[in-house]
Design goal:
single chain; 157 residues; mainly alpha; Four Helix Bundle (Hemerythrin (Met), subunit A); 0% strand; elongated
Amino acid sequence: MKRSLMAAAMILGCAGQGFAQTAQTMPTATNPSDTIALRQASMALLYGTWRGVRLAVDAKQPPINFVQGAYGALAISKMTAAMYPENLGLGRLGLDTIKEDRAGFDKAIAQMIAASESLVKATQANDSPAFAAAVKEMTQACAACHPRKFAKHWGGD
């Protein structure tokens, strides 16, 4: 069980870091379906990172093992607003409620960025209590959108 958890953590960390590096250099998608695919892939990676770190807390794994995934979560969190441009019509690239309550959506994104920053700090410091607190903060940040009004729930947890 511990080996499979460690392998999953390394995969998530590498995937998150690779995605974060790619996203920083990727041009803005001009085709709405490209933007949708980017957004869905980003949220899937963010969900995978969240789930992995949540399981790591339960298994009492060293936080340092999840630093790359934490960096990936932070990169995705920071680029989320750009994946939901304000100038597109209702229903084009997200639920109508995003445009209807942009201030609330932006507040939820800020909460996710703060939670991801806490996760990065906790993993860098290899601080288990701070890691557990950051994972809880990330869970609350996810709940600000899922399954609330801004996003559909991914299922599972």
